[in-house]
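yo

u said u wanted the structure for the complex thing, so here. seqs first:
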Amino acid sequence: MLLASILVLALGTYLMRLSGVLLRERLELSDQVQRLLPMAAAALLAALAGTAALMQASGFAGVARPAGVAVGALLAWRRAPFVVVVLAAAATSALLRLAGVR
Amino acid sequence: MRTPNRTQAPDLSSAPAAPDTGLLRDAAAIAAAMIAVGASFGAITVAYDLPLWVPFVMSSVVFAGGAQFLAAGLLAAGNPVAAVLAGLLLNARHLPFSLAVAETIGPRPLHRLIGSHLMTDEVVAFTLREKDPHRRRRTYWLIGVTLFTSWNLGTALGVLLGGAAGDPAVLGLDAAFPAGLIALILPSLRDRTTRAVALTGAALAVLLTPVLPAGLPVLAALLGLLVLFLPARRIKAARGREEGALVQGRGEES
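structre next:
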């Protein structure tokens, strides 16, 4: 049962990953719809970032994590390198937690 | 900010092949973070008393971090049906991702079969940051293979280290991933229409998180596309159409 459920989850996930790749050329998408695809992806990624930054389960994530993400976002906006953004975000929230801020 | 109605030569040709050391450095950064989070996944499955093969099978065949944490918890609680359903719901976003990166993966059947399995949020974000099709493809495969390797390596380390792998929050990794995603999508957000769609979608997702099961709030972000149907935006969208995909990834100057 354990193995079966993991394999079903894996297969379902794989089929979702594969389906768009296979369907893409069969669907005759107008230019306008094609232009929506990267926008849809950007909306999903922004939603992932937003929920991961602010929420923990169904409540707010506290202070340390959003503060770290905010520092990272600010640096990204100032065109800091990716590595700097990621490290600064992690360091900020880790240090805040070390100082007792949750 | 770009004025959509000005004729501008597409600068595809002039994009100098930026040294790939930058991409490699970014790949190394995300790989380090993936190893640490993968280790905490491995450690959690040990703490849950799941059989030792579970984390390895999950990390290699499911290969989706969020769904793995969620499903492992539900499996440990003896609820395999919920584990499958919740995991699939959380991964449903891969369907629109899959449409968006289909052309990047390319036409060869083997590439499609393997490339699809490498698809994750981070790979999609890295890929859509690039504008040039060749760089896009290289980025997809480089980041995809890097993440698959580091995720599985991390999982193994976590199983070996057990509790010593610890909580990713102590290292601030829970802040690193959203910040990294923001850095990757910022170039697309410099396009006004994309920004309106993405920010509306993100706001919807955050507001819906307390009331919907995991996975649905992020999918609800697709409703952000509805801002395109607001009267003022519709005109802009029509104007922007000639620019097509060029609008995407316009932050390459950075």
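The longest strand of chain A covers residues 55-56. The radius of gyration of chain A is 19 Å.
cya
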